Amino acid sequence: MYLSKRLLSVLRFCKALNPDVIFSSLEVGEVRFAKIRATERAGRNRVGCLALARRQTGARRLAVLQHRLLGVWQRPYAGGSTMRLPGWLIGVLCLLAGVCEDDGGGGATPPSSAIATISIAPDAVDEGNVQQSATVVVQLDAPVTGDVTVGLATEGHAVAGEDYSLADSELTVAAGQTQAETLLTPILDVVDEGPEQVEIRIDGISSTAPADEVIIGEPSTARLTILDAGRFPNAKAALAPDLLAFAGDLVITTDGSVRFHPNVYNWGAVRSTPTRLLVAVNDQPDWSGPAVATREINVPAIDAKGGLQITEELRLDTLRSFSPEARDYYVLFHVDEVAGERPGRSYTNQDFLGFSLDADGRVVLRCRPSATGTADLGAADPFAAEQWHLVNSGQQAYARSGGTPGEDLGMAASLTAGPTGRGVKLAIVDDGLELCHPDLAANIEAGASYNFNAADNLNTAEWAGARRDDPLQPSTLGGHGTSVAGVAAAAMDNGIGGRGVAPEVRLRGYNLLAAIDWQSAFPDALGASPAGPDSTDVDVFNLSFGSLGGENNADPDSDVSVFRNGVRNLRQGRGAIYVKAAGNGFNACRSLHRSVNNEIGCVAANGDALNNLPYLVVVGGFNAAGRKASYASAGANLWVSAPSGEFGGRDPAIITTDQMGVNRGYDNLVELGLAVRPSLNPDGHYVSTFNGTSASSPAAAAAVALLLEAGPRLTWRDVKHILAKTARKIDPEIPAVRYGFGGVAYTMQLPWVTNAAGYHFHNWYGFGAVHVDDALAFAASHQPDSLGEFRETQAFTSGPGSRIPDHDGGGLTATMNVGGLPANASIEAVTLEIDVTHPFTNDLGIHLISPSGTESVLNPAFNEILAGDANLDWQLLSNAFYGEAPNGEWRLKVVDAAPGDAGRLNRWSLRFALGTHP
Amino acid sequence: MRTSRSKGLTNACPPQSGCADTSIAERSHQGRAGSFAPMRGRAVLATCLAALLPGLAAGDGPSALMAATGRGYALVMPSDAAPGVLTTGGLRIEVAIENGFRTFRLQHRGRLHTAHASLDGPPRRFAFDLGRERFDEVAQTLLLRLKAEGDLAGIIAQTGALSGKSYPALGWALLRLPAEANPAEVAHRLESEGLVDSAEVQLKGPMYVPQ
User: Fold this and answer.
1) Do the Cβ atoms of B208 and A545 come within 8 Å?
2) How far is A629 from A653, CA to CA, in rounded Å?
3) Which helix (H) or strand (E) segment is B184 a member of?
4) Mean pLDDT throughout A65-84?
5) Which is more confidently placed, B156 or A671?
6) Looking at residues A26-49, what average pLDDT do you find?
7) For residues A706 and A490, what is the distance between their CA atoms, to the nearest angstrom?
8) What residues of B are in contact with residue A301 (Cβ under 8 Å)?
């Protein structure tokens, strides 16, 4: 066994800290390997810490295979994407997980032939114990020269994705090693099906070294029995904590200190156990060197759905004493998993932050024009042809496969004929904005952006040296706002980058998400402030963010009043348009995962209180194949959908602007697409793996900007109306989701419905996909401000409630007569307030049926955000009744889908936002 | 005096107003402070007054204070509470110093709630949100409804606030307080001295993250 001196020293350090740390490493010629394998040593659960670090001299890159990375925030990344991590860091991560193993091996040059077999342990798992995974191991009887890729195929009565999930369909046994493994985890469902078998077999094998001979031996198939937990098993017994690490606030002071305020958030349904947070700082962009500094911080037990902010101070002079020549620093925040967390999860416990120093040793806080990437006016945009969200011709967008022609924003005509958003003011309310990015600079409205962490004559600066009008994101590992801005407003025909949806819009950035004083920044960033900043002249606000909280109601003073003011008073009374991302929680089952969640989603869009306000345009996301993006949250509060893509590996994501520089931005974290095509992206200014409803929101916001250029007298309600009228019915054959509960059939998710006013609606898509050309055509003949007076009614309140039948698909139906509203009134939104006493509200599905018979699911049963929660006092919004008449009998249906906990509907009420539609 | 409508989601009476629909303590045992409890008149209940008084500390030292928020009421913990027990309005909070954190524990309706403030770094203050039935961090800002627009400068001076900003279009102003100030104490003082129509403590609420 051979180790680089530096790697050896770090691993010895890890081992000294924890005697249970074991590792193996191997050097073969120019290539050095370190491998850490998950075990059950030290009594820890498997945490999916399978990582293979490979450092190639010359290329100086480390690739971590099969490591699923959530990303800087909640943006999901595909399994199989590569992320740069140094070997020392792998060792430290495994130290924290306590799952590293030393095979004590040697380092002789391996032979070039081997036989591969497969095994699985244990050979039976209990469906009801979702924390128990089986480990699938591919074994070579001898190491070979090259990397051996082994395909896995599954068969049997158990169905992948319904009864179990297999973490990887392909394993790689690194050169010189003899083993690779993955996890098979049961999925708890609601079907009484008895024990089921799954067979996993080796399906193809190859080596990167042509001289290697690797054949499939016996056994080539492994078998696993998934024991049925029985009908409606006690999933609630499997509640678990789920810790997430966030870089949090960054404080930069005049004396040169940099302070981090990382957060550890427990998104699970039960309190976590004490653990630790590791903060590690590196000075190499490819993370190849040892840590410059590390901290280990105690993390106490955290309540469910609770957060803990930790103040940690790392001074710059301390960092520079270790690495005085460094100008760039990269910081990792890693929280160790705790007992009960689900192993092999696709969400990580890590976050990243980086910063750069200028010649004076100060953190760079001002946008500096790039020396390269100068625009060439009049020349074609090199990436525009790959931007499928503009016009989808089936192009791959630097992914491995393309999408379906026609699944896009429907703007083929306007791409050539305009409009372009000229004269319309768009605010990117986000974590920052690179004003001097070469593909954004031409559209930046000078002096209009705002940095909430810079000094003024009243406030203490949180970022000493920052400028008020420059919201540069100091973290160099992903400028979310910069990428969001590019989707909306990248300049066109300048010979660089791509093209925004509104390539001549007037752009500004407000770094609300980075604001250390959120409460003060919130009204300032959203149109309530005439000075410091002046946000009252903004036409369109883009909000590509969402909350991590559970069921929650918007604060009527500090939240609702801000948006209400914006739609009433801005744009000379025509109202600003607030466009918001729906969320990315469809797959975010933290504590409870039933197979039905694969169909109806985990976290619904109603978990973000702002999504439940009638003043916003809430935008879902769809991929290049014309279906809902795998992660995009769903809900009755969606208005429309727009392209957001998948992950850019197999399937296309979104091409947009990235933080300037090759050692900055998302392309420094995810090695896919443009990140591995330096000839196309030599300066690192662009990324092809941007996704999330963070991407669909600015696409829709920019579409709104196009409408406002064409129709400057359109009101905010006109805009919403036009979008709803012209949205394209996407994924038209999506079926209902229907199961039996307590012997009674229950439709958990509706198909596309057409309401009594003729609008089609689906919780995955709202009214459908934004169609820019159709919207512009409709707007041309639409009379502005012709939807009647906007009125918000008082609450119509029910009488006394009643018991909700436990485990009964028929549920409880309560009725309420609404009357006295104008006969010609048209519903623009319905807000339900519901008060329920129930020990486990995750059981409950909540539906509303209008007098016209239109049904809407306002809360799907098994909504993950309610896992572990008791009682409800919640405001929910539905757009499904748009255009219908409000008077008549309304029905509320509450279904308790799971047994064992029973409750009561106490009271409910309805409020209506009304107009008078022609 | 604030009206129930101005509070949006709650019809609870403001502290020191002399009116109550139900007491804070009763509400906390009945369920969440929500939007369905109608104003039932101005009956003053002993338990309501007890809840509004500064809480009793285990010994000398700061107390927990009940304060109005935009969504109801919250019990605001002192940032420098000594280990021991705080009681107020029928709620019992245990304070401990453990592993570098000041820990607050509250047993409420069968559930244990905890909050941890690091002993290092700037002081952080927690409140138990009676509406959402969970701990939340208190922001160093107050939401004020001013008697007159011109009052803000004087309030800034009298409270030693860092700054203030008025939002006439929204009908309220924000007061930024220094880290060592207890927003609940400042709010109580402003209301009791009649300097504002109302003062609400702001809870930080759920974290917002990029999507």
Assistant:
1) yes
2) 10
3) helix B183-192
4) 32
5) B156
6) 32
7) 14
8) 114
Q: Which of residues 37-66 of B touch A (CB under 8 A)?
A: none
β-strand pairing of A506-510 with A425-429:
parallel
Put simply, the answer to whether B169 touches A569 (Cβ < 8 Å) is yes
Nearest partner of A839 among A236, A182, A238, A331, judged by Cα: A236
Residue A194 β-bridge partners: none
Residue among A72, A555, A793 with most chain B CBs within 10 A, to mutate: A555
Residues of B in contact with A270 (CB under 8 A): none
Distance CA A536, CA A528 (A): 6
Please check whether residue A351 is in contact with residue A475, taking contact to mean a CB–CB distance below 8 angstroms. Answer: no
Tell me the backbone φ, ψ of residue A480, rounded to 5 degrees.
-60, -45
Considering only the beta carbons, identify the residue of A271, A546, A875 that sits closest to B209.
A546
For B8, the closest of A480, A513, A556 (CB atoms) is A556
ipTM of the prediction: 0.78
Q: Does A798 touch chain B (CB under 8 A)?
A: no
Out of B122, B135, B172, the one facing A557 most closely (by C-beta) is B172
Q: Over the range A125-136, which residues count as b (16 or more CB within 10 Å of their CB) and which as e?
A: bbbbbbbbbbbb
Which residue has 């009887």 as its token pair? A141
Which residues in chain B are closer than 8 Å to A532, comparing Cβ atoms? 165
Q: Where are the alpha helices (DSSP H) in A628-749?
A: 693-710, 716-726
Give the residue, B57 or B194, on which the prediction is more confident.
B194
Q: Is the pLDDT reported for residue A130 higher than 90?
A: no
At A864, which helix (H) or strand (E)? Answer: none
Residues 802-861 of A with CB under 8 A from B: 833, 835, 837
- Asked if A523 lies within 8 A of B32 by C-beta distance, the reply is no
Q: Indicate yes or no: CB of A519 within 8 angstroms of CB of B202.
A: yes
Nearest to A251 by CA among A568, A517, A54, A529: A517
- Which of the two residues, A692 and B33, has the higher pLDDT score? A692
Task: For residue B211, give the nearest of A300, A460, A581 by CB distance.
Answer: A581
Residue B13 per-residue DSSP state: P
DSSP A99-163: ---------PPP-SEEEEEEEEESSEEETT-TT--EEEEEEESS--SS-EEEEEEEESSS-BTTT
Q: Is A696 on the interface with B (CB under 8 A)?
A: no
| Cross-strand pairs, A215 | A115
pLDDT class of A89 with cuts at 50, 70, 90: low
- The C-alpha of A555 sits at a distance from chain B's nearest C-alpha, in angstroms, of 5
Distance between B116 CA and the closest CA of chain A, angstroms: 7
CA distance A433 to chain B (A): 13
Average pLDDT, chain A: 85
What angle (nearest 5°) sits at the alpha carbon of residue A472, between those of residues A469 and A473?
Answer: 145
Q: Three-state SS string across A37-53, please?
A: CCCCHHHCCCCCCCEEE
pLDDT in tens, A212-267: 899 999 999 999 998 876 554 566 777 889 999 998 888 888 776 778 888 999 98
Measure in Å the smallest separation between the Cα of B12 and chain A Cα atoms.
Answer: 14
Residue A529's nearest CA partner among A456, A607, A637, A443 is A456
Helical H segments across A683-756, by residue range: 693-710, 716-726
* Residue of chain A minimizing CA distance to B132: A552
> pLDDT tens, B78-117?
888 899 998 887 889 999 999 889 999 999 988 899 999 9
CB A344 within 8 A of CB A183: yes
Question: Between chains, do B205 and A552 touch, taking CB under 8 Å as contact?
Answer: yes
How crowded is residue A57: how many other Cβ atoms within 10 Å of its Cβ?
Answer: 10
**Would the CB atoms of B141 and A520 count as touching at under 8 Å?**
yes
